[in-house]
Amino acid sequence: SLRDLLLLLLHLLYTLVCSLPALMNIGTLLMLIIYIYSVVGVAMFGTVQRQGILTDQQNFAATDTALIMMTRLATSAGWNDVLASVMISEPDCDPNLYDGTKPGTPGNCGFGVFGIAYFSSFVLVAFLVMINMYIAVILDNFSEAQQADEIGIDEDDINIFYEKWMLFDPKASQFLNVSRLRDLVMELQPPLGIPDVSEDDILHLDIPLYPTDRAHCIDVLQALISRTLGPENPNTSEEFDMIKELMAESFRSAFPTLAVEVIETTTKQRLREIRAAIVLQKALRRFKNYKKQAPPSP
């Protein structure tokens, strides 16, 4: 359907954007490899006779023409023809052509064994390794985008959580009092947000509490994600592990220094304590009423 097609296009665009930093790094490395091989090609094949695939436009006489040649060969197109041209030997060339002006060179003849090693290694590194790394990066990011879509929580949701948290914690202490968590969760949109959230809903999240009833942002986020994934999901542990990596990266960028304190209790334990206190208060009131109504002992 049209909706599925649009979703696929969005996934592809998201994958491309996420892949750009890695692709730029790979591209820079590929350009460096092409430049190194071009310089070596000029030194070794710059004087080779023009014949076959080597022309006045395609040759190793200068660095610029060698760069163009090696960029073309990075796609592995026609590299064997270039190899055949630089392997020219007698009697098709003159090994003594430059003896008077360029001593130590094989004239306008080529380098057979070196040419094989040169072009074979270039095709192996530039095409079979580097070009396929482009494909691997794109496929890996596309797979992660699909997994995030299936889970329902992605990096944007985590970043939005930290943005909302910083509104309630402008000093970046990384802690909020448990009484303010309800307001924080109400500011969030699904899937992490809870519509019509109550104090009991917050306590049911089982968030670790630190001294003075404070909750750490990473604990709150983990509790909200666990609630979103749900215990009935068989892949929860794998999905949660993947999301925890995103959480850690976003947390380090939002809060460079990690605060470490000892957990005192949890919201669920606090809820049990509150309910136990209510039960005890009711029992105490009933006992007092019973004592008042009971006849005095003789």
Secondary structure layout plus pairing:
Elements: H1 2-45, H2 63-73, H3 79-86, H4 112-151, H5 155-168, E1 175-177, H6 181-187, H7 199-203, E2 208-209, E3 214-216, H8 217-229, H9 236-254, E4 265-266, H10 267-293
Antiparallel strand pairs: 1-3, 2-4
Helix pairs in contact: 1-2, 1-4, 3-4, 5-9, 8-9
How many extended strands? Answer: 4
Shape: rod-shaped
- Portion of residues within helices: 55-70%
Q: Report the order of strands and helices.
A: HHHHHEHHEEHHEH
Give the DSSP E fraction (strand runs of 2 or more residues). under 5%
Total helical segments? 10
Mean pLDDT: 80
Poorly predicted runs: none
Task: Provide structural commentary.
This protein has helices at 2-45, 63-73, 79-86, 112-151, 155-168, 181-187, 199-203, 217-229, 236-254, 267-293; strands at 175-177, 208-209, 214-216, 265-266. The chain has 298 residues and is mostly helical. It has a two-stranded antiparallel ribbon with strand order 1-3. Helix 8 (217-229) runs antiparallel to helix 9.
